[in-house]
Amino acid sequence: MEQLVSNLLIYGDLPQNSILMQLASVFKDFHSNDYDKTDLTTRIYKQIKRILELGTDYAFDKNLWHNYLTYLLIMQENPFSLTCEKVGSKDGSVNHFAKSDFGVYKKLFEYDFSEIEDALEIDCFSCITDYKAIEKPELMYNHNVSEKVRGLSEKLEKAKDENEFFDTVTNFYKEIGVGAFGLNKAFRLNEGNDGKILFSSINNMDSVVLDDLVGYEIQKKKLVENTKAFVEGKKANNVLLFGDSGTGKSTSIKAIVNEFYGDGLRMIEIYKYQFRLLSGLISQIKNRNYKFIIYMDDLSFEEDESDYKFLKAVIEGGVETRPDNILIYATSNRRHLIRETWRDRNDVEQNADIHHSDTMEEKLSLANRFGVTIGYYKPSRQEYYNIVKKLAIRNKIDMKEEELFREADRWEMNHGGISGRVAQQFINHLLGL
Length: 433
What we know:
The chain has helices at about 1-5, 20-30, 35-60, 65-75, 80-85, 95-110, 115-120, 125-130, 145-155, 160-175, 180-185, 215-230, 250-260, 280-285, 305-315, 360-370, 380-395, 400-415, 420-430, and strands spanning about 185-190, 195-200, 240-245, 265-270, 290-295, 325-330, 350, 355, 370-375. By secondary structure, the protein is α/β, with parallel strands linked by helices.
């Protein structure tokens, strides 16, 4: 194994503490015939444990060794894989090196562990290559990642040679992508100790779809039209969803990401205190073969906050043009995002009912950077009943309509008033009885 791993060129830049590199070190010592049996067994078990932990996180099954190697291939962001993601595999000298590496991976797929198992009297490799995972709810792992890794792993098992291996992997890069962006729908932003921007995948993102949001058909239509144009490479606008709390603003954006994930849409959630990282974030994702929504939830500013000026320049108005693969979607309870006071109107002049207040213009200009603004308002009493009724039918709640509405009224009076969120909470209450 150590000789195979040493022959990797494009895919050989692995951390020394990675499972593959640690196992290669184990086999190097084993083949030297100068080793301590107990020490070698302990080192192997540590790496087997790491493979099992990875398998648990992503519900790998059948052959964990193949799943692990496939996961490595998917996650490796190198010039070759990133080029394949963007334009596919083109004829070029680099393909010679890539096929050589894939030939190594094919041999790793077929590696015979019986020699070291017999010598050390262990059977752990046999167990992980013929593995039956314990069934568990999908919410306990990232179903999306699991499905893609296992699917590619099964295809690579059937590859006849390195050429077929090459075609299978590069097709995956082009169709799905490379690294965490290829496997996951949504991310949060973190800052490393060295100031480098890091992305943390959101593994338990709500699987909501737009049909789950009862009502708001006009609002959903506007959001879908803008997003559809975006993923198709047409001109699209930044979007501001504003209005009352509990009306489905955040749910709509999550549903949009779920709906257009297959078209290459990804979401990165960013918080107000991270706005200073926006420029760095954009520079890291502008050349990737995905469409990114930078998502800002519950966006608003107090009058003494000035971060909105930086955000305004990043959205539109700075020296650098916003890349075509990035849009900003924000939700807010405020139509104009920034708190407005009567003091802002002290310098207002009236001339044919037109305001000339510099302070007000400054505060309103941020909201104007969003080309599409969509209002989400509290439903009427009848609309509230319609939402409750549809949710009750969807959840197979058997209750007379009159009683259902009466209980819904009682619930909303003690839980924040009429809204779609309160309706859903009421249904959850009934389901828990």
